[in-house]
Amino acid sequence: MIRFEHVSKAYGTRSGQKVIVDDINLTFNRGRSIGLLGRNGAGKSTLLRMIAGTLAPDQGEIHRKGRISWPLGFSGGFHPALTGRQNTRFVARIYGVDTDALCEYVMDFSELGQFLDMPVSSYSSGMRARLAFGVSMGVMFDYYLVDEITAVGDAAFRRKCRAVFSERLVHSDVIMVSHSYGTIREYCSSAAVLENGQMTFYEDVEEGIAAYDEIINRS
């Protein structure tokens, strides 16, 4: 369960204040995978970071019950001076999983080879994403937060990502940001639309997609 209680978040910009969410009261229950829809710049990635707990709201609280991943696709949480293996061991200790087992899983899954023992600062964005996805898939979460991560790598690696991710979602839920309706339909049963600081939940994903289409078409 993830519950928003009077949650607000805004940023100051040159053109004025940008409101991400404004006094949101909403509950995401277990058993529903949710596609998060919104325009570019609406604040979807910011919202995922608040759900993960890596970014605090300005007001209100987000209550979480269950183990929640960091946003897949956001690899900024890795320490750049540490190697991929050292970062992996650090994550393992935080979540209480076997460090050697997680390192072996990440080595096999990420296909980083010798780069796993090189500083993350030397990684390309794609390599960071491979490391982030591998570490995330090696830890069992109740909720996976996904920010367009399934587009990483070549065709073979994307197929592997999708297969493993589908296995995880047999027992877990996802909150997913994607510009692809096909991807949202594949993984999500419900939708939440973020528009002008308000978030509207739709139990049926098709209703959410239709509502978002209407917003886009009238703008």
Written overview of the protein:
It is a single chain. This protein has a 6-stranded mixed β-sheet with strand order 5-6-7-3-8-9, with helices on both faces. Strands 2-1-4 form a 3-stranded antiparallel β-sheet. With 219 residues, it is an alpha/beta fold. The model has no long low-confidence stretch (mean pLDDT 91). The radius of gyration is 18 Å and the shape is globular. A hairpin with a 2-residue loop joins strand 1 and strand 2 (16-28). Helix content is 37%, strand content 28%. It has 7 helices and 9 strands, in the order E-E-E-H-E-E-H-H-H-E-H-E-H-E-E-H. The chain has helices spanning 44-52, 84-95, 99-110, 125-137, 155-168, 181-187, 205-217, and strands at residues 2-13, 16-28, 34-38, 59-64, 68-72, 143-147, 173-177, 190-195, 198-202.
Which key phrases capture this entry?
219 residues; six-stranded mixed beta sheet; three-stranded antiparallel beta sheet; 28% strand; 9 strands; single chain; globular
Tell me the strand order in the biggest sheet: 5-6-7-3-8-9
Shape, per Cα inertia axes: globular
The pLDDT mean sits at 91
Over the alpha carbons, how many angstroms does the gyration radius reach? Answer: 18 Å
**Tally of extended strands?**
9
Order of helices and strands: EEEHEEHHHEHEHEEH
Strand content: 25-35%
Share in helix: 25-40%
Secondary-structure-derived class: alpha/beta
Spatial separation of the terminal alpha carbons: 34 Å
Spans of 5+ residues with little confidence (pLDDT < 50)? Answer: none
Please work out how many helical segments DSSP would assign: 7
- How would a textbook summarize the main sheet? 6 strands, mixed
